[in-house]
Design brief:
11% strand; 45% helix; 404 residues; binds zinc ion; alpha/beta; 2 domains; globular
């Protein structure tokens, strides 16, 4: 493990760790850049995160696991690029903003909204969790730049340009032929996408290239005035999944001063087509049994037949482990440098691996990083220092753009 030690960072940490002692997981500021929420989050008792839930992230799991801050995601499903499609996406996004606001209103003594890196640090110092807001899929902006301003006013601080399927902003790493998508090829950012990027830079919204096509990432790196993030992606050189970032683009993100948040999503950490096929046929069978045309994770995931089926598949084709995750982190650090790598779970959006199955198991990640030889300074950088640095830089660029 080759890491660069930073003198200033070492000095800053000295009071926390004392002479010869290791920095404890509890002493770290940990930031997860991608946590999903179900459509009925906070509105159904089973998704009220003040109590014990079946979700991978609730307040108790964050507190017990020392997961201090998370970006909760305004994800909307891709639909057609039509007025009706955009109206539906805006409505889906509204439900999620309202759900996060409900959580914040109900549990102000446990979690607070953070819209600046400084607030994240202040909340941590006062023993509070931080909720940040990220957008997943710029489809929910339709073709309206003013909706980005509205999202910023609501607290959103990163914009994931795409999801699966091309949109008005740029092409995706996963085309959706049913919506008329051709493979992305060399087509990246659209003209509207460039104006979105400019507006994000001026507002101080981090641009997130996870899910974007390689051509889009390339165009973003050439166009942006501020560092960018990949909020939840892993290393393409280790697992050639289209959602992963290749080494050339990873170096580009590092050169831009940005950060790739390596994600604990099994399918991006370890290729296992047999598992994928087994899960797909289980989902089909469970949906059929429930009288539905397709599997709906929100309604079908908790059915006993699904849970039992998944347990059987897990015995035969186990999900990725913490060691697979650490391999991707080490690779990213070797290629990009320790300052340009961070961590993300994608919990409640398909993320979760053996060893980091939910937020309560977060200390295992810190212990794993230490076993791999990362120093306290490295671990603090991976766990949030780098992301907060990028965020601060994005704020600085926005201030400069506004006074220009
Ligand atoms: Zn995603």
């Amino acid at each position: 493990m080759i890491t660069r030690l930073c003198g200033a960072a070492a000095l800053a940490l000295a009071p926390l760790i004392g002479a010869g002692a290791e920095l404890s997981h509890d002493g770290l500021l940990t930031v997860d850049t991608h946590v999903d929420i179900p459509p009925t989050y906070m509105r159904e008792a089973r998704y009220d995160v003040g109590g014990d839930t079946a979700l991978k992230v609730d307040l108790g799991k964050m507190e017990r696991g020392g997961l201090d801050a998370a970006f909760f995601v305004i994800y909307v499903e891709q639909g057609p690029l039509t007025a009706a499609g955009y109206a539906d996406a805006i409505a889906q996004a509204e439900l999620k903003y309202a759900a996060i606001e409900l959580m914040l209103a109900r549990y102000p003594d446990r979690i607070r909204l953070a819209t600046t890196p400084r607030q994240v640090r202040e909340h941590h110092a006062s023993g509070l969790l931080s909720a940040m807001i990220g957008i997943e899929n710029g489809y929910s902006l339709g073709r309206r730049l003013d909706l980005l301003d509205a999202a910023y006013a609501r607290g959103a601080r990163y914009l994931g340009l795409t999801h699966t399927g091309h949109n008005a902003i740029c092409t995706s790493s996963g085309a959706r032929p049913e919506f008329g998508d051709a493979p992305a090829g060399d087509v990246g950012l659209s003209r509207f996408g460039r104006s979105v990027l400019q507006r994000a830079n001026a507002l101080g919204v981090m641009v997130d290239v996870s899910h974007a096509s390689d051509a889009c990432v390339r165009d973003v790196l050439q166009t942006t005035a501020a560092p960018v993030i990949a909020s939840h992606s892993s290393a393409h050189a280790r697992v050639p999944h289209p959602r992963n970032i290749n080494d050339a683009l990873l170096r580009g993100i590092a050169a831009n001063g940005g950060v790739m948040q390596v994600v604990a999503y099994s399918g991006f950490l370890k290729l296992d087509p047999e598992r994928e096929a087994a899960v797909a046929s289980l989902q089909e069978a469970v949906a059929r049994q429930a009288g539905a045309t397709e599997f709906d994770s929100d309604r079908h995931e908790e059915l006993p037949t699904y849970r039992q089926g998944l347990a059987r598949i897990q015995r035969e084709h186990p999900v990725a482990t913490l060691e697979d995750y650490l391999d991707h982190i080490e690779h990213a650090v070797q290629v990009a440098g320790i300052e340009h790598v961070g961590l993300a779970s994608d919990f409640d959006g398909g993320g979760g691996i053996t060893g980091w199955l939910d937020a309560s198991e977060t200390p295992n990640v810190t212990a794993g990083l230490r076993r791999r030889g990362f120093s306290d300074q490295d671990i603090a950088a991976l766990w949030g220092g780098n992301l907060l640095r990028v965020w601060s830089e994005v704020e600085r660029v926005a201030r400069a753009e506004r006074t220009r």
